[in-house]
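**Backbone shape codes:**
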Amino acid sequence: MTVQRWRLPTLALAFAIGATGVALILAPRFQGGIEHTQGCGDGGTRLRRVELVFGLSRKEREDVSEAEWSDFLSREVTPRFPDGLTVLAANGQWRNVAGVIVKEPARLLLVWAAAAPDLDQRIEQIRTAWKREHQQESVLRADSADCVSF
């Protein structure tokens, strides 16, 4: 767990007044899509964490096979993140544009990377390639900052 760094000009304040008192909610400062935190302890390094969720179901076709996933990982992901990544098998559900709940197998890709001018571009190239190759509506993306040590 990281310790949040707060600065007066960047505080987001929300007050809820009720019978029991006042609740104060503070938001961390974000800059360039990264949550700024105090230094990492015990030799840790602050890295950007990017999570991508790839659905494996396709309309009127069989699900993406392990061989197809492995090929995509080798061609599109590994060259952009050769220092390392993690892939987890998952099952997900989501509401499609027609309002129908869809359940499908998925892959969760986790990448921890140092901030770099081309980081967002590399991530978006991966998402675009997956959607194009496998006729997907979307690839979920979530970004955060973590303290990491090896």
Observations:
- The chain has two domains: 1-38, 45-148.
- The mean pLDDT is 78.
- Residues 1-38 form one domain.
- Strands lie at 14-18, 21-25, 30-31, 34-35, 45-55, 86-95, 101-113, 140-148.
